[in-house]
Amino acid sequence: MLPKLISIGSFYLPTYGVLVALGFLLGLGLAVRLGKRSGLPAEPMANMAVYVALAGLAGAKILMIMFDWSTEFRDHPMEIFSLSTLQAAGVYQGGLILALLTAYLYMKKQGLPMLQTADAFAPGVALGHAIGRLGCLAAGCCYGIECKLPWAITFHDPEANNLSRTPLEVPLHPTQLYEFGTELILCFYLYWAFGKQHAPGKIIGQFLLFSSIARFIIEFFRVHDQALPFGMPLSLTQWIAIGLALAGLALLLKPTPKQIPATA
Questions:
Q1: Measured distance CA(87)–CA(90) in Å, rounded
Q2: 194 vs 17, 44, 184, 210, CA distance in Å?
Q3: What is the DSSP string of 181-223?
Q4: Taking the CA of residue 261 as centre, how many other CA atoms within 13 Å lie in the half-sphere pointing to its CB?
Q5: How far apart are CA 108 and CA 153, in angstroms?
Q6: How far apart are CA 127 and CA 232, in angstroms?
Q7: Which residues have CB under 8 Å from 132's CB, separation 6+?
Q8: Distance of alpha carbon 129 from alpha carbon 150, whole angstroms
Q9: Which of 43-57, 81-95, 163-177 has the lowest mean pLDDT?
Q10: For the chain, where are the E strands, in sequence order?
């Protein structure tokens, strides 16, 4: 596709990085807007978004390194600090887990209402994730298995192969677009649900549940370089998705009699 947005000599601006940054800014704007509608202070919300974004990037890289340790980093540990590792997309679930932990610690320290704040962030997280998946498509990473369906996509750019080992001239499932579509729909739905009367925790609960179910299904159409754990036909990402889905379900089933009025 277009791994390099701008290239001057050895310097280039990765399309993935630009789209991730755009997704962060749009998601942040949406979260702050919804936070204001719930009476949450804008500055702590914005600060939390920055900390959570940094934690998300770090968590995604950490889980990627764990996944690829035996094949990429065990014999060459300094590759962890290489430019290619820095530019790699990482593993989304690792970023989400560390981001949730960071958000929890920040909200506890700042005295922000946890579930209400998480609800305000949920649609923005879905939006940022959707735009980030377009970055994955441009970079050629997170690619799917071979596909003979009419909507299969074929990568031609050698840079995609150099950066992400993307198969070239082979029709593949557009898993990046599958996730882009589901996350964008989820963003619109959560935004609509936020404006309705809801108990604290119900919006973030729906995000964790529906996003994880979508990721669990999409994983069956993605290429996995790592061995499947526990001797079962599920990837580690799918096991993480199961855990996050159960957490979301627990929030949805939790008795919460106090309702938040619909916001205009």
A1: 9
A2: 29, 20, 15, 15
A3: HHHHHHHHHHHHHHTS-B-TTHHHHHHHHHHHHHHHHHGGGB-
A4: 4
A5: 45
A6: 32
A7: 19, 20, 23, 89
A8: 26
A9: 81-95
A10: 4-8, 11-14, 153-154, 171-172
User: The tokens of 85 are what?
Assistant: 């590792």
Residue type, 43: E
Token pair in block for residue 109: 């320290």
CA distances 261 to 99, 216, 258, Å, are 28, 33, 10
Give residue for tokens 């942040």. Answer: 28
pLDDT tens-digit series, residues 9-43: 766 677 877 888 898 889 989 998 999 998 998 88
C-alpha torsion angle, residues 124, 126, 129, 130 (rounded to 10):
-110
Tokens 């989304």, located at residue: 92
pTM (whole model) above 0.85? no
CB neighbours of 124 closer than 8 A, spacing ≥ 6? 26, 27, 28, 29, 30, 31, 34, 187
